[in-house]
């Protein structure tokens, strides 16, 4: 049976998991009011940075007594800032089930070299047993949504209400698309280039009053680089949480983030953003149900991401291949789609099992996903046919 080339292509074929698709209708004109050539310490710069913080609080529904700061080096910088500044006061439980979470484990165990570290891990597609994590007595570091596995925590019910330790949550591919349980979280980090489709290099850190108290009462045994310091002279550097950044931000990127936040408000704020991401994920779920050669990498439906949706090929002709050949097959599928201009940046993360990763965050249009899926089927059939030719 002939493999028919799909008739239509997505209008916006951008499905990267970071930097992600720009918000619908975005053009360079959205940046026309950027404070270019001006100091970020001038009133115009500080006002824009403060506005970015205020709109972030509004859209994400962050409690009024939590502090929000713009920090260097994207989400990675924000997570490292939190770990280097706060960990070491008590034992820490590290929870990881994908590449970035594993990275935080490595940094705590091999860079900070903390003595009392427990690690809870799970293979790609699954979550560790969260009931074994001691959230009452120990600090906890975890990702809310595993960007490279497509597995997320269903909720924060596993975190103790009467905890004495801190919870540090990497929420970079969850913020603005999933509901974060703020009372259960003491440090939350994310970046601009994920759900809202902003530009890279800028991170956000959100601190609960308990996290601030730790900053003021605990001094790490190691020296802190300047870009990690949130206190000075035993007091909190309040300016960080009012638009006075530690280092120089890109005012062009700031303007882009402000535009994305304004768009977020127009589509209904957090409710609207979650609805859009959930709707996109349902488009993928329908495709998976209708095709027996592909499935979610996430094993349980309730832990499947609505942003970084990861898929695996389940056709016996593919699963029988050696691991390197399965990876080559997945790359071939991606290459066919990209060469046709039907979808970009769909490949699995380098450390993840072979397959596809499709970003379904709020800036992606469902109509573009619906146009992409026939191309995935077409590319799969083309790649599978080539397996037979190679065997011959």
Automatic annotation (TrEMBL):
Pathway where this protein functions: Amino-acid biosynthesis; L-serine biosynthesis; L-serine from 3-phospho-D-glycerate: step 2/3
Enzyme Commission number(s) of this protein: 2.6.1.52
CDD domains: AAT_I (cd01494)
Reaction equation(s) it catalyzes: O-phospho-L-serine + 2-oxoglutarate = 3-phosphooxypyruvate + L-glutamate
UniProt GO MF annotations: O-phospho-L-serine:2-oxoglutarate aminotransferase activity
Highest taxon in the source lineage: Bacteria
Coiled-coil boundaries: none
Statement: the UniProt record of this protein carries the keyword Amino-acid biosynthesis: yes
Keywords: Amino-acid biosynthesis, Aminotransferase, Cytoplasm, Pyridoxal phosphate, Serine biosynthesis, Transferase
Cofactor(s) needed: pyridoxal 5'-phosphate
PANTHER family, sorted: ALANINE--GLYOXYLATE AMINOTRANSFERASE, AMINOTRANSFERASE CLASS V
NCBIfam families, per database record: PRK03080.1-2, serC_2
Family listed: Belongs to the class-V pyridoxal-phosphate-dependent aminotransferase family. SerC subfamily.
The protein's name in its UniProt record: phosphoserine transaminase
């Amino acid at each position: 049976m002939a493999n028919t080339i799909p008739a239509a292509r997505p209008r916006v074929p951008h499905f990267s998991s970071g930097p992600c698709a720009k918000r619908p209708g975005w053009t360079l004109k959205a940046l026309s009011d950027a404070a270019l050539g001006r100091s970020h310490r001038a009133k115009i710069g500080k006002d824009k940075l403060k506005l970015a913080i205020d709109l972030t609080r509004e859209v994400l529904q962050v409690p009024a007594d939590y502090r929000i700061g713009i920090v260097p080096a994207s989400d990675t910088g924000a997570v490292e800032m939190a770990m280097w500044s706060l960990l070491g006061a008590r034992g820490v439980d590290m929870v990881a089930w994908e590449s970035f979470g594993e990275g935080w484990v490595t940094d705590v165990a091999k860079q900070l070299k903390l003595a009392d570290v427990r690690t809870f891990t799970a293979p790609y597609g699954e979550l560790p047993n969260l009931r074994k994590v001691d959230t009452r007595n120990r600090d906890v570091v975890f990702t809310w949504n595993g960007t490279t596995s497509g597995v997320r925590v269903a909720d924060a019910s596993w975190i103790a209400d009467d905890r004495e330790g801190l919870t540090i949550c990497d929420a970079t591919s969850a913020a603005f698309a999933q509901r974060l349980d703020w009372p259960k979280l003491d440090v939350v980090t994310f970046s601009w280039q994920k759900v809202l489709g902003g530009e890279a290099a800028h991170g956000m850190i959100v601190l609960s009053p308990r996290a601030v108290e730790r900053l003021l009462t605990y001094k790490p045994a190691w020296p802190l680089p300047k870009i990690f310091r949130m206190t000075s002279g035993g007091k909190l550097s309040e300016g960080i949480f009012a638009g006075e950044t530690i280092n120089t931000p890109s005012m062009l990127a700031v303007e882009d983030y402000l535009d994305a936040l304004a768009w977020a408000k127009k589509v209904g704020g957090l409710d609207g953003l979650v609805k859009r991401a959930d709707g996109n994920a349902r488009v993928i779920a329908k495709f998976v149900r209708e095709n027996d050669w592909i499935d979610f990498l996430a094993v349980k439906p309730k832990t499947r991401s609505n942003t970084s949706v990861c898929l695996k090929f389940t056709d016996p002709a593919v699963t029988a291949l050696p691991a390197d050949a399965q990876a080559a097959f997945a790359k071939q599928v991606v290459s066919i789609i990209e060469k046709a201009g039907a979808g970009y940046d769909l490949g699995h993360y380098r450390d993840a099992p072979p397959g596809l990763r499709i970003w379904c965050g709020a800036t992606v249009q469902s109509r573009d996903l619906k146009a992409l899926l026939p191309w995935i089927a077409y590319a799969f059939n083309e790649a599978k046919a080539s397996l037979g030719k190679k065997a011959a």
